[in-house]
Design a protein that fits this description.
Length: 133
């Protein structure tokens, strides 16, 4: 028989709170089976879905979009094209965000470099701004 985990065990394994797991279930991101006593029982597959949800959240996908994706997943194989489209769209957003963060990192590196050049000279903010561009 496959491993089954209580909500506390699932929270410990995934690193998120039991409250968050209940919330994800309430908004339709997860569909967890229950034991005869009514307690939630998480499977390895459920934990895999939690990990995927966390990945999407950590890449700033909004919860309504994740809920839409999860609903499409629940509907089965006929929705693969739509799910692929959603993930590709999110990937493009993520690529743009990474590029923006790279620009910010370059600006910080320029500022650090400017500070490292000559500590005896007063900092000229106009020159630093030009260095960044």
């Amino acid at each position: 028989m496959a491993n089954r985990y209580t909500i506390q065990q699932a929270a410990e394994i995934t690193g998120i709170s039991a409250h968050t797991l209940r919330y994800y279930e309430r908004i339709g991101l997860l569909h967890i089976t229950r034991a005869k006593n009514g307690h939630r029982r998480y499977t390895e597959d459920d934990l895999g879905w939690v990990s995927f949800i966390l990945l999407l959240r950590n890449t700033d996908m909004p919860l309504p979009d994740i809920a839409e994706y999860m609903q499409l997943e629940k509907e089965g194989m006929d929705t693969i094209d739509e799910r692929r489209r959603m993930l590709r769209g999110h990937r493009e957003i993520l690529i743009a965000r990474i590029a923006q963060l790279q620009d910010h990192l370059s600006a910080l590196d320029a500022k650090i470099s400017h500070y490292s050049q000559d500590d005896s000279q007063p900092l000229n903010q106009t020159q630093v701004a030009e260095d960044i561009e």
